[in-house]
Specification:
The chain has one helix at 3-81. The protein is mostly helical. The chain has one domain (3-80).
């Protein structure tokens, strides 16, 4: 095999290796994209659950305040009667 043929064979092998590496990298990037999208979906769902929980807690706090205000009002009325 001449030097030229040997260089052409090495170049062909290098191009094939580069194509394989590129295909693997593209595959890995696609997987990362899928994982990133799944993480974004989970983040949006967690944010929605946290928002719902926050609203529920705010409702409970408002109810407790109303109960305490009502109890304070009843205690004040009893004190005025005495």
């Amino acid at each position: 095999m001449s030097t030229f043929e040997d260089a052409a064979a090495r170049l062909s092998g290098a191009v094939e290796a580069l194509e394989d590496a590129l295909a693997q990298r593209l595959h890995n990037l696609a997987l990362q994209g899928e994982f990133a999208e799944a993480a974004r979906r989970q983040s949006r769902a967690a944010r929605a659950r946290a928002e719902a929980a926050s609203e529920a807690i705010a409702g409970v706090i408002a109810e407790l305040r109303a109960i305490l205000d009502e109890a304070d009002g009843a205690a004040g009325a009893q004190a005025n009667e005495a």
